[in-house]
Design a protein that fits this description.
The structure is a homodimer of 81-residue chains.
Chain A lengths: L1 E9 L6 H12 L6 E13 L5 H16 L5 E7 L1
């Protein structure tokens, strides 16, 4: 099986309240040097080996756009291993 | 600033209901070849350049254990760029 790893985060300019909250929590735990915390999602799944790398890439992009990410406010990158 | 990327996912053997749900959703969208979907968190933040790589690594591990991840059920990996 080919392993696919997808990383999703909010686009630049889209507020990330969860990240801000965790950043403040870190500051109050005395890690005051942490900046620009952004939190997103990480997904991994497997696709059959018989798919070519091209097909796997195509299918992953389709799945991201249709279900995994919200392309209006999120951006994604992925890696096929 | 040094960029740190942290990837958190449930340990092997810990159920991942969110992943299961997304996997079923993909199957019903006709991506039936997707298997072993696991969903976790992805975080990125910046640390000052004046920290040595060693110190940055140490601080990230500390922050993960104290706040970012739940070491009982989650495992994390990170990368400092």
């Amino acid at each position: 099986m080919a392993k696919v790893k997808v990383y999703i985060k909010n686009k630049k300019g889209v507020l990330d309240p969860q990240g801000k909250t965790v950043e403040s929590a870190l500051h109050s735990l005395n890690y005051k040097n942490v900046e620009n915390m952004r939190i997103g999602k990480y997904m991994e799944f497997e696709l059959p080996d018989k798919l070519t790398k091209e097909k796997a890439k195509e299918q992953t992009i389709e799945m991201c756009n249709k279900l995994l990410a919200n392309p209006v406010i999120e951006e994604y990158t992925f890696k096929i291993e």
